[in-house]
Amino acid sequence: MNWKARVLALDGLMPAIGDDGGLVWGTLADAPEDAELCFLGLDEGKACFAVVPPKGDASPRMANPRLWSLMATLRPDDLAIYGGARSLTDWHARHRFCAACGGATKLAKGGWQRDCTACGASHFPRTDPVTIMLVEYQGKLMLGRGLGWPEGSFSALAGFVEPGESIEEAVNREVLEEAGITVRDVSYIASQPWPFPSQLMIGCHSHADSDELTIDETEMAEINFYTREEVEAALAGNGPFRCPPRHAIAHHLMQWWVKR
């Protein structure tokens, strides 16, 4: 047994945080004897693993405020490691049976595949593309508050890319559905993995043809337009709304907008 290998300490899918504020690592001896182990990569020559938990968790991140608070304290490198480990082990925990025949599956290729023990079908961890977009109209930025969000909390609109859509089409459709506004000149800015449970957030910028809102009240509580000065003040912590946390791509998109 390789005692130099490291195993990420997790309580189910929750991260363990050390006295230094970073992730906690153990050895293979700390893992249950019959555990499924996912290979995360190498760090200074040491193999790093994470244990697949008994249950997965496909609930949105807003449903777990404790996790949200813990993530805000992690360093960027630890946040990236935890995000990858959470997404991968959660997928394994929720895919123990074959989608083709219903047979039991087993971990393969170090955790980057599951194989059906009955029909032999191979299954692979999924990533779901989500557009998250800044919408600009005459120097103002559109931001929204989703249903169930805390009062005063606003972010960029976002939505899953549907089958057969391009990124540009998904941006246009989502904004039209949620705000009743057509956008144009969609451009890509940046992306971010988001392990709730397995999204890839695709950050975009676009221009609106109008500011006449028709809000989809089944998804959004509020949508408003804010000036550059208002967004800048909110990023500094004293504006008319609360911004997304610094580790969220929406925060960085807003920073990009006020600085460009």
From TrEMBL:
The organism's place on the tree of life at top rank: Bacteria
Reactions catalysed: a 5'-end NAD(+)-phospho-ribonucleoside in mRNA + H2O = a 5'-end phospho-adenosine-phospho-ribonucleoside in mRNA + beta-nicotinamide D-ribonucleotide + 2 H(+)
Gene3D superfamilies: 3.90.79.20, Nucleoside Triphosphate Pyrophosphohydrolase
Enzyme Commission code(s) on record: 3.6.1.22
Coiled-coil zones: none
GO BP of this protein: NAD+ catabolic process; NADP+ catabolic process
Domain Nudix hydrolase residues, every copy: 125-249
Cofactors demanded by this protein: Mg(2+); Zn(2+)
Name recorded for this polypeptide: NAD(+) diphosphatase
Taxonomic lineage: Bacteria, Pseudomonadati, Pseudomonadota, Alphaproteobacteria, Sphingomonadales
